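User: For my dataset I need records formatted as: sequence, then structure tokens, nothing else. Please produce one.
Assistant:
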Amino acid sequence: MSGACDEAAASERRPFFSIIMPCYGVAAYLPDAIACVRAQTCADWELICVDDASPDNVARIVEAAAAQDARIRLVRHKENQGLSGARNTGIAAARGSYVWMPDPDDTYDPELLEECRAAIAMGAGVPMGGVVDPASFPLRPNTPCDVVVFGCREEYRADNGAVTGTRELVPALDGAVFSMDDLDAPTCHVVAADSPAAIELAAGRSAFLLDRDEYRSSILVLEELTLFGYAWNKVYRREVLDGLSFEDVPLIEDVCFNIEVARRVGSAAVICRPLYRYQKRENVNLTNKFVPRYYEVHRRRVAELFELLRGWGLDSTDARSRLGFRFARYVLSAIERTFDERAGMDAAARRAFCAELTADPLYRELIVEAPARSGRVSRALHALLARGNPHLMLAAGRCVHVVRGRSSRAYASVKTVG
């Protein structure tokens, strides 16, 4: 299909893909990220690197790459505006039909854009497989594929850069609705076996299509797999983003953005492959950093997802149970963070924090009143938090804090066990 994505065409007309890459303090990783983009088998793209007043030499790296490839552009901020501001600048500058926003410290499979374009073509009525000629499916303003979602492979790296482990998060289909496989090799199942999407997969395709209602029903299980919230594992139709922007909020800017996008999605394509390589570096990722507003922002994440589902009439008992388990994990993580010396909390402050948690109406609705999930760990966590005993809650938080301090990978495993 590489013939469908002509490099020369991308510089002469509106490119199919606009790739937006915010750059701040990533000079050590940026050359590899740019190389991954240039290695894409689909060449019909523009790369917009936004130098967010970075203190290192990212601008020179981008300028050198742009001198070699006219599809690469540098946009510079005079003052640092943060990840959200850099992405918003990139979206405003984008000329492509679809927008992708990878992180510059990750890497990507060379077929990523080609497979996304093929999935979009499938949504426009073009058969999958073989060479896809762009002329055979002119992009229509009302093309049904508003977003493409694909899987990722987490690569855990030690301080010396060595890969210490991997984990794949991949959408899949086996005829079940809202079910999960063993979380050691997680997949999610989002549509019924007799749906058009199932027919697509039965034909041996690596992607399937979801209509509006199927996509809405898939959001919670994608969220369980962490594939809903991220912006980097999605390609968005440019027109769907009109009037939207990333909010300047820590940790959840992506999920807040995707919630607003979800309200506009008429149909989506889902690719059942881990095309994105998410680098989980020891003591580098944002999730490893201390965020004073951790509970506040994650409570908002859960509350907004709950309101989204409730507005669509999808707040079933099962949905409350699933979302309640997500909330319970954030609560436990918030308790764990009270033992971080940067929190500045003594024993009395920790007990008061637990009292505030259990008094929260959202806590009562999704944890105390919602049924527990079927998994052994899920039931244990539900019983612990539903009881509301601050001494037991703090004991559990201290145990998690010890695990987190010893290994980020072990901590990630604890977080994903159901």
